[in-house]
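name: query_chain
kind: protein
chains: 1
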Amino acid sequence: MLVKILQKNQDKVTNTKILLIKIINEPEKYNLPEIQSALCSQRKLAAFSSEKCAITPCTLNTLKSAAEYCLPRGFIELDELRQNAKAALEKEIVKDSDPNHNTKAYFKERLKNAEIELDMSKRTIMGLTTIIGEMSLELARMANSGNMTNEKRQALYQDLNNKLQHKLSFTLGSK
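structure:
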C-alpha cells in the first residue's frame, strides 16, 4: 500500500511537470479557469486534479517531498515551471483580451507601456527645455547687439530659425 501511495505521488509530480511544459509551449490550449487557478500558488498546484492528465490532488508537503525525490532540482524545478506556465498563460490572456478585460496581466502590460511612454515624454521635455534655453540666449544676444544692421539681424534670424526647426524636428521625431 505504501508503494502505491509513493507511486501515485511520483505520478503526480511527473504528470504535473508534463502538463506545465505543455502549458508553456502551447498556452492557448490550456487557457482554462481551473488551470489558471491552479497556477496561482504552490498550494493550489498541489491540490489540482485532472483525470484527463492523470493528476491527483495532494498536500503541498507531499508534492514537495515527491518532487525532491523525482526531479533533479527538486521542488524548485517544479515551482519554476509553474511560474513560467503562469506567465505564458497571462501573456495569452493579454493577447486574447479586449481593452475592457480586467486581468492582472492586462494591467501589468498597460503599466509597462505607460512607463515607456512617460520616459519618452520626459526625454522630449528635457530636449525642448534645452532648446528653449538656447533660443532665449540667442534672442538676448540678438536684442543686445545694437551695432547690427537690419540685414545682419535678418540673416541671424534666418540662421537661428533654421537651427530651431532642425532641433525641434530631431527632438520631436518628425521630419
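note: The chain is about 75% helix and 0% strand.
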